UniProtKB/TrEMBL annotation:
It comes from Anopheles maculatus. The chain crosses the membrane at residues 195-214. Residues 1-27 form the signal peptide. Keywords: Membrane, Signal, Transmembrane, Transmembrane helix. This is Uncharacterized protein. The keyword Transmembrane applies.
Length: 219
């Protein structure tokens, strides 16, 4: 008895709260483009084919680099990032940047900067040491080949290029870490992960083909 009289009320409350949630979510969607543009782009990738294939006789390296913006509460760009990214259900984390960089492009940029009399010291001051990062930002070490060698050779170089741009355009700097690199000098043998991928792919193809055949036969 109690349940049946309260039923409609409960339903009304439920419908109202759903509607209110939808309305407030839609309000949260509206944002200010001027502020949005203060933030660096989350994704930026140089052309991979142009980097490695255009002229294979010219050795080059393409690296995927993760950059984590250094918090700076006196920077308005950082405050927008912090505010915007706190809505993690709807927004990307804008402090976590993905970069794909061609080695020769970065070397060229640094050479140009040298010609414009940007000192080595200024460039070195752009490199940010690692700080406490409380979200996963990179695939764990040991997943990709030769990462340690590439990191030793190019970490500082890419840190300078990425941070020069961040500093110029947004007044920010980031801790950067190379995730993996591809070089057009190396040829890579098929490894276990690739074999595992082929096995799974083969299994799926087999299952699909077999199911279709079985279905066809049952008709
Ligand atoms: C957007 O933000 C900028 C900078 O904070 C401010 O000057 C501008 O008035 C804002 N625009 C709107 C529509 O809120
Ligand atoms: C923080 O931001 C302010 C204002 O943009 C800037 O002057 C300062 O150098 C920044 N600090 C660091 C550590 O990047
Ligand atoms: C860099 O410094 C050299 C020598 O001091 C000078 O001749 C040149 O004009 C400077 N270039 C720029 C872009 O300031
Ligand atoms: C992965 O490598 C980076 C740089 O070489 C190092 O700073 C980091 O601590 C390593 N992480 C783990 C989990 O070993």
């Amino acid at each position: 008895m109690m349940v049946s009289t309260r039923g409609p009320q409960v339903l009304t409350v439920f419908v109202c709260s759903v509607l209110c949630t939808i309305v407030s979510v839609q309000c949260a969607e509206q944002f200010n483009m001027t502020q949005y543009r203060l933030m660096p782009r989350v994704f930026h990738f140089d052309d991979y084919d142009e980097c490695l294939l255009d002229d294979p006789s010219v050795p080059d390296v393409y690296c995927m680099v993760k950059a984590v913006v250094q918090p700076n509460t006196s920077s308005s760009a950082w405050n927008v990032i912090a505010h915007y990214s706190s809505n993690w259900k709807q927004h990307l984390n804008h402090a976590h940047l993905d970069r794909g960089l061609c080695l020769s492009g970065c070397i060229r940029l640094l050479a140009e900067l040298e010609q414009q009399n940007v000192t080595e010291q200024e460039l070195r001051s752009l490199v940010v040491p690692k700080f406490q990062i409380d979200f996963p930002y990179i695939i764990k070490n040991g997943t990709f080949r030769d990462v340690d060698t590439y990191r030793r050779q190019y970490s500082e170089l890419f840190a300078k290029c990425i941070n020069y741009e961040l500093q110029q355009k947004h007044g920010l700097r980031a801790y950067t870490e190379i995730e993996y690199c591809d070089s057009n000098r190396e040829s890579y043998p098929i490894d276990n992960l690739e074999i595992a991928f082929l096995v799974v792919l083969g299994f799926l193809l087999f299952t699909v083909t077999f199911s279709s055949w079985y279905d066809h036969r049952c008709k």
